[in-house]
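Homework help board

Subject: predicted structure for assignment chain

Our instructor gave us this sequence and asked us to write out the predicted structure in token form, then describe one feature. I got the tokens but I'm not sure how to describe them. Can anyone check?
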Amino acid sequence: MDGPIEITPATIKDAAAISLVLRAFRDDPSLFQKPAAAVALSIDEFFVAREGNGEIIGCIGLHFDAPELAEIYAAAALPKHQGEGVGRLLVAACIERATDNRVGVVWLATMKAKYFARYGFQPMSRWELPRPVLRRKLRMVFEQPVGRWPGALFGRYTFMRRILGQ
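My token output:
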């Protein structure tokens, strides 16, 4: 690692780098891919992790589904930086933003349940989510390359939530 890790809100200039971080996991069915143009459309939802030299080494998104409900998505640290605390810092930034916005529940869908359990997330039924949220997630599946659809639809995702303010 080159210097301390800094977590900042993403800017439009970061869209391509975020897409590249996600692309590093193109063979990982648990992480949806997003081209730079799609990232740019939701850039205000993203945080990035930067090395001391300014290089983006991780990203995470926080989507507000409703005033009391938000989803963490696109959580990734470049493989060579895993185990350095990048994910912990990114998740903390999302929790802080959600808390500042008085969100009561932060949720996510993951194939890495043990990892997110470390940060206070607990399994939940996907059917506890509002229907519009489930429809949005289904649309996102069909925005992925066709080869990723079966894993996204029938994979071993664990839906998890963390209740804030407790």
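Reply (TA_rk): Your tokens look well-formed. For the description, you could write something like this. The first strand starts at residue 6 and ends at 9. That's the kind of observation they're looking for.
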